[in-house]
Write a structure and sequence with these properties.
Layout: H1 18-33, H2 47-57, H3 65-92, H4 99-117, H5 120-124
Length: 127
């Protein structure tokens, strides 16, 4: 089991405090858990340990101040755009239809086509 020794040694020029180290590590661990690839090779088996190592060694960039605000706003725009694209795709391709709904849709479309093809003679017939 890999354990990070405490206190953690980090470059105080790049990371201005323990709080920033913790917050950055949490965000990196979240990204790793959502499928991001590690940027360093490590023996760490846990995502949190790997995230702390990456942040402490400076392998991931930590944004602060105006740069962080701009990055956050850009990320919100991209997230909103992705959500709108997904919603539009669901409207064009309804995947949540059950088999019964699909069969009913096919039946109604076939029935509608056959009724349209009938002539007046077919409907009223010879009396």
């Amino acid at each position: 089991m890999d354990i990070i020794s405490l206190p953690i040694a980090y470059d105080r020029q790049k990371i201005d405090g323990a709080y920033r180290l913790v917050v950055a590590s949490v965000k990196r661990a979240k990204a790793l858990s959502q499928g991001a690839l590690p940027v360093i090779s490590s023996r760490a088996q846990k995502i949190t340990t790997l995230a702390i190592e990456e942040v402490a060694t400076g392998a991931v960039k930590i944004l602060t101040g105006e740069e962080a605000v701009r990055a956050s706003e850009e990320e919100k725009k991209l997230t909103h755009k992705r959500m709108m694209d997904e919603a539009q795709q669901k409207e064009t391709m309804p995947e949540d239809m059950t088999e019964l709904e699909k069969d009913l849709k096919v039946y109604l479309s076939e029935k509608g086509e056959s009724e349209q093809k009938k002539s007046i003679e077919d409907i009223f017939g010879d009396s």
